[in-house]
Amino acid sequence: MINRQLSRLLLCSILGSTTLISGCALVRKDSAPHQQLKPEQIKLADDIHLASSGWPQAQWWKQLNDPQLDALIQRTLSGSHTLAEAKLREEKAQSQADLLDAGSQLQVAALGMLNRQRVSANGFLSPYSMDAPALGMDGPYYTEATVGLFAGLDLDLWGVHRSAVAAAIGAHNAALAETAAVELSL
User: Fold this and answer.
1) Which of 120, 123, 140, 176 could pair with 129 in a Cys bridge, judged by C-beta atoms 3.0 to 4.6 Å apart?
2) From which residue to which does the signal peptide run (predicted)?
3) What are the boundaries of each domain within the chain?
4) Does residue 125 have a pLDDT over 70?
5) Which pTM value belongs to this model?
């Protein structure tokens, strides 16, 4: 019996030490790290033209300093159903992104419930239908209370939730672009 325990102990120690030794790795001297560029040093090549170049500013009419034109465009923008729909789609996309992002946070819930039932003298709980204060029974009523607390956190090990949040943020950015395009077209 002792011989068998010693052989198991020896086997476990050999397996454990083999596992520990296999985790060791030969670390060679690595080359010096690359120099990081400062944000001021980063710029686009001269032959790259952004899509925004040549486009009018978002509120181009303000540069003209004409109060009558400002009032006319403000009235047009405030009365546009197309712009209102685009802004609603933008708000919906923002709320979807916020909802998905909230799913990655700590979730806490509390529960409280009180259930009071009248017990039949002919049913399964007939002993509780008696009025016997000495036994803790107060008549034909049965009261049950439940209190609970829940906390949970989604670890997102495979990045599914992170991808869904990124997609929702992309949809929100698309809705922002659509709203800007509608505003510009008016």
Assistant:
1) 140
2) none
3) 62-105+160-186, 109-152
4) no
5) 0.51
